[in-house]
Amino acid sequence: MKRYFIGLTTILFFAGQNLTAGSIKADTLKRKFGFHLMLSTKPIVNWLGKTDSTDHFFYSKVQLELQFSFKRHTIGIGLNGGYNLYTTLTNGLPYHTKRSRYFFAPTYCYLLHSEKRWKYYGGFSYLRGYDQTLFTIQSPIETITKSNTTIEEGSSVFLRVNYRLRRHLSIELETALFFTKIRNEYFEDYPLTPSLNNSRPVHYDARTYAFPSNLYLKYSF
Amino acid sequence: MKKLLFLSLFILALVVSYNCKKSEMVRKTPELNLPATAYDYSTITTIVGSDPVLYEDGSTVDNGKATIGRVLFYDKALSLNNSVSCASCHKQENAFADTKALSIGFEESKTLRNSIGIGNLRDELVSGYFWDGRERTIESMVFAPIANHIEMGFERTDLIVEKLSHLSYYKPLFQKYYGSDVITEERVRESLGNFLFSIVSSNSKFNLHELTGSSDFSAAEVNGLRIFSERKCNTCHLISDNFQTSYGNGGITFANNGLAIKDMDDGISGNFKIPRLRNISKTAPYMHDGSIKTLEEVIDHYSNGIQNNPNLSFLLRNNDGTPMKFNFDAQEKHDLIAFLKTLDDEVLASDVKFSSPFK
User: For the complex shown, is ipTM > 0.85?
Assistant: First the structure.
């Protein structure tokens, strides 16, 4: 509850600084259409903090969002994905770690208010993420596999505050409430010793509020 | 347009992280290189020319079972991830000890103690196995490292049988030497036990000296033997045969329980097995924690480095309770080391019947 309070108060504080009834400046809607590209600063934050800040802080997994706006309406698609494969040696045996993940989130947001350099949006999103880490240790005797897969699916509602830095460039802070179903499946496979095989599926519903859930750099074409 | 292109490339580089370093291993099932007729393990003796080493019940090592035990000893399949075998920490060329202070387990974690050399296990039938003597039979001792969560990781030892049954080379071996291809936990224990029991050092210069009474000992070696006896090193470090090993606290600062693990008695905490000194120059580093790197440093430790602690052996205390200082001079140290090297058995270190049976 405390997080809700802090997040919403902050958004309202900034909104209050610029709130003028019915004020959407003419230049905001001068161009009816617009294309925007948003890039998450999460990797930089993680690098600075030397941690993967996913727990109630920068929870959104969107790395890149492409947007199309029409007047006050904006639709977008948030994306993330990656594939890593690296090999280490355990007592001389190759130990492969392969991680594959994707995330996409179609979004809709509505321009609530605009004043000077500030804009305020409210919106919602569907989201689906897939993250699998596969470990294999290879030997002449057998190949042992361990896998951890997480699939997250659900929706979110969010508020975004945008501050224009330059003509085309702005930053956008997001706070969001996520409603997701999380399915986590872990298994171990020992071909020569099937009794050691292990599978642990865990399914649960999660409701996560994050402030901020993301911080974007936004480029408007 | 240029801006857009640069921006797209930047984003692409940032979003897509791909790091690939391929190292594919060609799968090739291990192949054995065993003689048609099993090597002779049954006539092993502690001294060349003397009677064979016997179990307590008077039986000798079975050649066939020891052959299976040799395969098991060198087979990495006995570790959970197939990365280490018994022989990974008990190297033949090092008198079945490890050159690392603390050995490396199946997931590259360090073990708690230095891997003690294997040999002449008959001497430990009563006193127990491992540094703390916690196992009383060879058959129970052989599975302890396999089941250890740091060493080989097979915490459910009953599943070893399941794994071995899936390896093509074991059933023919059990068929040949047990008369049936059924692999059981008891048979695995027995086979490993037979192999380990057969590892006996009997060909050192000192062994020949004991057997014949005469030898080609150098003056330094003779003097080293004299110092070893006169300074009562042999009170704890038995070098003759048919004496059981014992336990003591040698005044090492680091102690991780020792006998207390077995007996849960704080009074003997920090007491560890006093090893036989056979092949001692091959088994560095020394002590239960591998904290002393060379023989010279071991002698320095007893010379003036014994640390006092409540459990320090009374044999290492002066009458007033303070730790003894042997104060060996340089010549004594040199001669002691010369003598200790006469306990090395070069035959054991290279005997093919104790070497890896895998091609």
Answer: no
